[in-house]
Amino acid sequence: AEPGEVLVECREVAKSFGGVRALDGVSLRIRAGELVGLVGPNGSGKTTLVNLLSGALRPTSGSIEVAGRDIVGLAPHRIAHVGVSRTHQIPKPFESMTVRDNVAMAIMFGRSPRPLGPAREEAEACLDVVHLRHLADARPAEINLHERQLLEMARAIATKPKVLLLDEALAGLNPAEIDAAVAVVRRIHATGITIVIVEHLLRVVNQLATRVVVLNQGALLADGDPRTVMNDPDVIRAYLGR
Ligand code: ADP
């Protein structure tokens, strides 16, 4: 994608679970090259939005386009082929496979499928990006939480996404690990992948994001550059005033 090209276009997206309106008419445009911090109090709809963008959920109403294609109703693997990739809060790698082969599998079934041999070579390059190449022969059970989350990112970039959705990818890490993970997110972004990161650590969002989008009770509360958004009285109230 050319820098500045519209990659994600959500129009009036709503999602209800029974009587709960998790998202209530969110319109959002994300351009190639952005690194968007998606924040908001617990229950504000962040994970629901990620699930809608990746096809894990289907909106109750509204439209979602990725790279100009309507993705509503497409299966998650089809949306992956359009160029959306995501990480999960709780990584679930294939425990019986090596770290390398976990990434190779993602490549083999990705946008440009290839046999195991070349996929393994490409997997090493993905592991390089997340600084995990030295653990290529390990099994997931032998690596720690931080490393498992880096593996999750390596698997997510293996499909060569246009947009990478990172859902709480730093949860449970210690400060040194957070710094390391932030550096990895920067490296991924520098390879040309547009990123949406859901993160409750505002310090991290401020460090990383080119733009911050705040959800509150399923609606867009603020959207703009990190400094302006974080000083917005409505945003401060949403976080602290209840
Ligand atoms: P966040 O990620 O910002 O914490 P969520 O998107 O997880 O928020 O949740 C938004 C709202 O939708 C919450 O009220 C939550 O309880 C509700 N919700 C999310 N997923 C489901 C579901 N599968 N079934 C019922 N309610 C849900």
TrEMBL record:
UniProt feature coiled coil, ranges: none
Ranges of residues in domain ABC transporter: 8-242
Cell location: Cell membrane
Record-given protein name: Branched-chain amino acid transport system permease protein
Organism in which the protein naturally occurs: Jiangella mangrovi
